[in-house]
Amino acid sequence: KVFAYFGPAWLINFCMAADTEGSVANAGRWGLCVGPQSFYWGGTWICGAVGTDNPSLVKDIMLTMTTDKAVLKEIVEKDSDCVNSPSLLKELASDTTFGSKILGGQNPYQQLADGAEKVDMSKISDYDQGCNESFQAAMKDYFEGKVDYDKAVANFQTAVKEKYPELSF
Fold it and tell me: Which pTM value belongs to this model?
């Protein structure tokens, strides 16, 4: 019995067992609300190869994939993903024909738009990804009972110091 999950927008389609016969998601019995704290997790990355012989085409593809509202809407329609376009999210939020099977027909885009507006990126740094990875690795050992809490924290700090010698605790 689960009361709720806190997670990113992609949790709905990729983690809720929608294709599993008899699951809550398959029966459309989940709902979505804006959580107490907005956050983002991840994103989709596209990169152009250094030395490409067609940088103009690479630029055009990147801009099309990230800023063309028709393409972004197609991504939403095919994958029910949350895209980086506040105006499109607002349009989708008012679309009464759009609904998620997992959410029992609820249109999630008002909640996604509201949550996205509250994301605070002011404290993001170049160190975040590496620190997150080191923390997860250290805590995995703790949760699996391989080390106690103090040792897990010490392992995390050691990993961060090795990765980023310019940082200190």
Answer: 0.69
